[in-house]
Amino acid sequence: MTTPTPSSPASPLLRAEGLHVTYPGRRGEASARAVDGVDLDIRPGEIVALVGESGCGKTTLARSLLGLVSPTGGRVVFDGRPLDYTSRALKAYRRRVQLILQDPSGSLNPRHTVYDAVAEGLRIHGYGGDEQAAVAGALSRAGLRPPERFFLRYPHELSGGQRQRVVIAGALVLEPELLVADEPVASLDASVRGEILALLLRLRDELGLSALVVTHDLGLAWNIADRVAVMYLGRIVETGEVEQVLTAPRHPYTQALLSVLPEAPGDPIVLTGEPPDPSRIPSGCRFHARCQVLAGGEAERAGVASRCRTEDPGILDGGGEAQVACHYAATNSTSNPSELAR
């Protein structure tokens, strides 16, 4: 089977359509809009990186795509069908879509052997085949060879990288079509991070897996993703092919995130203030209160400052083309991105 390339016209395997997730406020407070209108496609064989600072809503979005959180608006579509939230349908769905968490120590029961940890999903889903062969195959694909050496080991006997490979094997044993990886290497040493990222890429190439990788690390996105979606305050503000977005960022928020990478040219862009409360999202562009382009006067000179403060740029389409939710970027599409960040 040929794995579709990111640029192929394959229909999305997973799609978020106008997704909203709202949490009720306490004691009469306004509801918190954790996810505030998101369209996002993930095609077969594609790795999409969802990036943004802590609290932007990316983990809530990932949980809603997994069916762990029911949306308050919009819908999730998988393989052409809207997600059904009945227990039986979700069980079948989660066999095809698996979650990989950032902390392998917290994901593994310390009292379970590696064999039991990997076999757990098979037992939950009533696997009728050769369990031992399936577990051995998953461990081998995750890079733990020979797999039989690991069957009777416990998590505390493994390194951090080995524990993460066990978590990945536990996801692979069900032969899913999509992995959702939430900060999959955040808790690992730098020397092991590259190995796990290389493993995820190899699994994509060999098995045709799709993946959504949730991260705050744009360097990780550069190394693993085909496409990147940058999220701020519950909404995707810039998206496109990873090389295009990370070498020529158009949204001031993306520029600020990139500016603090060690290899970034020039001085880091220091954003003022903290991200707004999701229960009190500002009018206009939700980034305008912290925007260095607006604060520096460039938006005023371009004649869009008033729109930045009062007019919502809208929800980006979930497809693969480059898009940005920024009034200034829209009027300066030919500008040098490094100049926009000054």
From TrEMBL:
<dbReference type="Pfam" id="PF00005">
    <property type="entry name" value="ABC_tran"/>
</dbReference>
<protein>
    <submittedName>
        <fullName>Putative oligopeptide ABC transporter ATP-binding protein</fullName>
    </submittedName>
</protein>
<dbReference type="InterPro" id="IPR050319">
    <property type="entry name" value="ABC_transp_ATP-bind"/>
</dbReference>
<dbReference type="InterPro" id="IPR003439">
    <property type="entry name" value="ABC_transporter-like_ATP-bd"/>
</dbReference>
<dbReference type="InterPro" id="IPR003593">
    <property type="entry name" value="AAA+_ATPase"/>
</dbReference>
<dbReference type="GO" id="GO:0055085">
    <property type="term" value="P:transmembrane transport"/>
</dbReference>
<comment type="similarity">
    <text>Belongs to the ABC transporter superfamily.</text>
</comment>
<dbReference type="GO" id="GO:0016887">
    <property type="term" value="F:ATP hydrolysis activity"/>
</dbReference>
<keyword id="KW-0067">ATP-binding</keyword>
<dbReference type="InterPro" id="IPR013563">
    <property type="entry name" value="Oligopep_ABC_C"/>
</dbReference>
<dbReference type="GO" id="GO:0015833">
    <property type="term" value="P:peptide transport"/>
</dbReference>
<keyword id="KW-0813">Transport</keyword>
<dbReference type="InterPro" id="IPR017871">
    <property type="entry name" value="ABC_transporter-like_CS"/>
</dbReference>
<dbReference type="GO" id="GO:0005524">
    <property type="term" value="F:ATP binding"/>
</dbReference>
<dbReference type="Pfam" id="PF08352">
    <property type="entry name" value="oligo_HPY"/>
</dbReference>
<keyword id="KW-0547">Nucleotide-binding</keyword>
<dbReference type="InterPro" id="IPR027417">
    <property type="entry name" value="P-loop_NTPase"/>
</dbReference>
